Amino acid sequence: MVAAASLLGTVALTGCAKASHDGASADGGGPTKITMWTHSAGNPGELAVYRRIIDDFNASQGEYQIVQQNFPQGSYNDAVTAAAAARKLPCLIDMDGPVMPNWAWAGYLQPLDLPASLTDSLLPTAVGTYRGKVYSAGYWDAALSLFARRSVLEKNGIRIPTVEQPWTLAEFDAAVGKLKDSGYKTPLDLGAADKGEWWSYAYSPMLQSAGGDEIDRSGMRTAQGALNGPAAVAFFSWFQKAFKEGWANSDGPVGNQNFVDDKVALSYTGVWNAKDALDKVGSDLLILPPVDFGKGPRIGGGSWQWGISAGCGKAQSEGARKYLEFSFQDKYLTAFSDSQVVIPATAGATAASKYFGPDGALRQFAVLSQKFALARPATPGYPVVSTSFEKAAKDIMNGADVKPALDAAVQAIDSDIKSNNGYGN
Amino acid sequence: MAETARAPRARTETSEQQLRRRRRAWSYLVLVGLSVFFLFPLVFMFVSSLKPDGQLLSDIGGWRAFLPVGDISLHNYGAVFDRVPVGRFLLNSLFVTVAIVGLGLVVNSMAGFALSRMRWRGRGLVTSVVIATLIVPFETIAVPLVYWVAHLPILFLQDGTLVWDTGWLDGYQVQIVPFVANAFSIFLFSQYFSTIPTSLDEAARIDGAGWFTIYRRIVVPLSGPAFATVAILTFLPAWNQYLWPTMVVQDEKLRPVMVGMQYFFQDNPAWGEVMAYTSMITLPVLVVFLAFQRSFVSSVAASGVKG
Amino acid sequence: MTATFRLDPPADPGPGPDEPRPGPAAAGARPATRPRSARPRSARRSEARAGLAMASPAILLLLAFLIVPVLLGFVLSFTNARLVSPEPLRFVGLDNFVRAFTVDPTFFRSMVNTFAFAAVVVPVQAGFGLFLALLVNQRIRGVTAFRVIFFIPVVTSIVVVSILWKFMYQPSGVINSFIDSVTLGAWQGTAWLNDPSTALFAIIVLSVWQAVGFHMLIWLSGLQTIPEELYEAARMDGAGAWRQFKDVTWPCLRPTRIFVLITITIAALGLFVQIDVMTQGGPVDSTSTLVYHAVLTGYRQQQIGYGSALSLVFFVIVLVIALVQRHLTRDKD
Questions:
Q1: Residue B273: its chain A contacts at CB < 8 A?
Q2: Each residue of C301-333: b (16+ CB within 10 Å) or e?
Q3: Which of A33, A229, A250, A330 could tie A22 with a disulfide, CB 3.0–4.6 Å?
Q4: Of the partner residues C18, C52, C319, the one whose CB lies closest to the CB of residue B120
């Protein structure tokens, strides 16, 4: 009896669940429904801005209606991969910038086709281009920096670096050594307790600053030489040393708590932790440029961006485009920035933003982003590049021999490229 | 014989009692020690759920991790509700779990009955295949399964009319139907059913009863413990489903509780809320278990899980 | 005692399933011979029809949601299939298997880790479970409460458990500070999950902690079927606690032993969630397992053809192990 009741329940509930789905959107009357997926579930601040944009858009016209579906970031890629494999992607998809070429190559995205005046007005790292066509665009970018306390550096006689004259590697090593001697058990938090895309995002710019790269960007056909050449070996030897010497560790917690508690003196972390640090540390807080490993400082660029799926119907694509165009208004970009503490993608929105405007307390991040940001390699092979990079870097951190670990990563990346016929490059 | 057995025992009564008392004391000591071992992570979880993140992280290195001291409040619980539709997720999990367990009891017990008490061509083959499927971990078939269910036909109601479509992504059925049939349950049922004398079947057959009647009127009423055991053993994995719903459930309104866990891992994890949420989703299972533990323990004992 | 654990199906169309299983219950109630041959053919045909009908819902569901995906994976493992790709599907013969065994060191490492995990967890969890069962099988006050406490980790989601233990394993976490205070500071803590030499061990501990309550209950159910008279007889022969265990308990637990052995083995070989939540196979592949590696390559890295090949290798290995176990534990009679 229980079973019979639950059987009936299944039918009834799937019925009403399915009716709200836009897959088979009603043609007869009413606005065309367009589904969009965000990675923002569990982030009320960001969702509130989306809510506002969608409400405004839905109210501004009667032709289209945006239906929002939110996923938690941690399982977003699992959900998208499953939907892509099943050919059931929604019209509007949120994606982490470097993944875009993979999807465009696979045929899951259509060119964005937004007015050039719009995409040209955005930060270069907020626009995703693959084979000369724009496929994605984002409202903001993030940036990394070294957080420090002015008082601590001054007390230890360490020069405060500037954007014009950042720390050299030798200077940095000396500074970290001094801080360790001054009583910090682990002076540096590199964020190594984190996992996933963070590794490529945070540490591949250091590698580039040292003269290496995740892949040879001319042609994108091999990682040979870039990821296992002398520059890469030198950088990763330093990376390993930083952990071996106890300058940094991978104990966590993920985030900036160690810096806020003054357990570490330097914290390599993102703009998203800046507000909290500012609240706790106050005017003593320094937002320092990244270390120059030899070829000039670098930080990662490219954050979450929006694209339109190739499987999206003609009328719905039209609506999706209208919605995106509508959403790139400065006021919304400023709202995202104020709520999420991220750098707005347009100059106008930046000027109006609370933290990054001319007098904003975190303006330095906008400067760092403009001067040093470099996007991760725009190649369809990126997912394997990123996971191989992460694995190699983690193994090296945990004591693996540098050169063989890098060779293994190169081997994994190259064999993936080969098995995909060079990804059309 | 009873007399001779009792005589020597009476003589050593006191020393034997002493021995027994000492053994009992040791038993309690070990039992309490083990209880600490089995409970401390859960105490840590609950205590941490009452603390703000900063304190939680600085407390983990000592005994304070297990003590509700410092800045204690229910704030994390309130914050959980702002972030996750907890009630909705709990109801979804409850519904999916009850459906899997309920349908599973019927389907698997019928199969167990047919495999253990009836003679039909192909039974040996089916039994072999069912047992072979025990070795397939779900994770290894998840991806082909996604691909496959995405192409299954589905019938649903839209605006009062029945509509055919393809694709099982989303909805409740994709969370329920693939998990109804369960090789382990079939195996347990057939083991238990085979201990019930078949002479009962024969008698019923002579009285003209059909096989389904025998199943329903004779075997099922005698198999309470087997049903209880299977119910509990299928309840746990159904409630704890994790990988599958993240892959196939798109509509937020249909998500189960375990997916909600990811909501707390933003740029920085909100640990206090994680602990509050895990406490909240663990509690219902604990309550169910505590309510039924007496019958569960005895039913496992009675059901012939022993083999 | 009433039924023996059998992995092999009864012969078909053999005698009734009750017949090869002589047990006190069945033997007592069953007539000495069954008038099988006297039954008319039509009755047998209707029995066949009804049997198939009653088994068919389960058969169809298993077919649709287990066998078909397994077969699909079987086919995919001989192709270059990827989840996201414009490349046409191509049969590549044994390429994926060659890759696994020649150029994928993580695969080999995963195999070693999987076996190491199972080799430790199977005896430890089985033994610890039996120890707990013996403890809570005593007739002492409050014993039910202890049964419940030992079982509580089983009803806690493994995802939750993994998150909690990951926290406690931190270098500055409670486990290190506990060891530190027990050894009076003689033993400095370690970064359990970040050290290749301790990570798998750390996962073994929490896995046993989580699952042992279940097997305690299984052992307990076995213990409770042992007739008290056997113990009384042994005591009368002057057997002490150890002799009682060795001569009565252990032999009587034989079917339970086989059941416990096989269920732990299957669960241990399928280790996945703990790895996914806690270490993602690291550090330096020291916790990567076959199932984790198959999911990582087949799903997260989208090389479903290769991932399916790894799954297939896994199935074959588990099947071989199950058959070996069955052979070793077969009925001697």
A1: none
A2: bbbbbbbbbbbbbbbebbeebbeebbeebeeee
A3: A33
A4: C52
Which residues, in sequence order, are CB contacts of C106 under 8 Å at separation 6+? C281, C285, C288, C293
Give the distance from residue C174's alpha carbon to the nearest chain A alpha carbon, in angstroms.
14
User: What is d(CA A239, CA A406) in angstroms, rounded to the nearest whole number?
Assistant: 13
Range of the domain at A116: 13-140+302-360
A228 and A342 share one domain: no
Instruction: Tell which of B92, B170, B271 to mutate to test the A interface (max A CBs under 10 Å).
Output: B170
Question: Quick one: pLDDT at residue B157?
Answer: 61
| Structure tokens that stand for A206 in this block | 């250091």
Residue A74 contacts B, CB cutoff 8 Å: yes
Q: Could you report the per-residue pLDDT of B14-36, keeping only the tens digit for each?
A: 777 888 888 888 989 999 999 99
CB contact C301 to A (< 8 Å): yes
* C contact residues 134-163, partner A, Cβ 8 Å cutoff: none
Q: In C210-245, which positions are buried (b, 16+ CB within 10 angstroms) versus exposed (e)?
A: bbbbbbbbbbbbbbebbeeeebeebbeeebeeeebb
Residues A132 and A219 in one domain: no
Q: Do A398 and C195 touch (CB under 8 A)?
A: yes
Does C301 contact A249 at a Cβ distance shorter than 8 Å? Answer: no
Chain C: nearest CA to B210, how far in angstroms?
A: 9
Residues of A within 8 A of B91 (CB-CB) are none
CA dihedral B190→B192→B197→B199, nearest 10 degrees, is -30
Residues A241 and A296 in one domain: yes
On whether any CB of chain B is under 8 Å from the CB of C291, the answer is yes
Task: Look at residues B141, B35, B3 and name the one whose alpha carbon lies nearest to residue C294.
Answer: B141
- The mean of the pLDDT values for chain C is 82
Answer whether residue B278 shows pLDDT above 90.
Answer: yes
Q: Does B7 touch chain A (CB under 8 A)?
A: no
Alpha helix locations (H) across A39-112? 44-60, 73-85, 100-106
Comparing A5-19, A156-170, A183-197, C237-251, which segment has the lowest mean pLDDT?
Answer: A5-19
Q: What is the pLDDT of residues C309-326, one digit of tens each?
A: 999 999 999 889 888 887
Q: What is the pairing mode between strands B153-158 and A140-141?
A: unpaired
| Among chain C residues, CA nearest to B8 | C236
Rg from Cα positions in chain C: 25
Domain membership of residue C102 as a residue range: 97-328
* Residue A386 within a domain: yes
Does residue A17 sit in the same domain as residue A112? Answer: yes
For residue A369, the one-letter residue type is: S
For residue A148, the SS3 value is strand
Domain annotation covers residue C40: no
Tokens 């746990």 sit at which residue? B236
Instruction: Give the alpha-carbon dihedral of B132, B135, B139, B144, to 10 degrees.
Output: -20
* Spatial CA neighbour of C207 closest among C296, C136, C120: C120
Domain B86-264: CATH superfamily is MetI-like (1.10.3720.10)
Nearest chain A CA: its distance from B247 CA (Å) = 5
Sorted by sequence, the CB contacts under 8 Å of residue C206 that are 6+ apart come out as C161, C162, C165, C274
Give the mean model confidence (pLDDT) for residues B199-221: 88
Q: Partners for A (CB, 8 Å, 3+ pairs)? A: B, C
C85 by DSSP, 3-state: which? coil
Distance of alpha carbon B287 from alpha carbon B289, whole angstroms: 5
Highest mean pLDDT of the ranges A227-236, A257-266, B45-54: A227-236
Tens-digit pLDDT profile for residues B65-122? 888 888 889 999 999 998 999 999 999 999 999 999 999 999 999 999 999 988 888 8
Instruction: Check: CB of residue A261 under 8 Å from CB of residue A183.
Output: no
Domains contained in chain C, number: 1
Half-sphere exposure of A150 (CA within 13 A, CB side): 9
- Cα C92 → chain centroid: 34
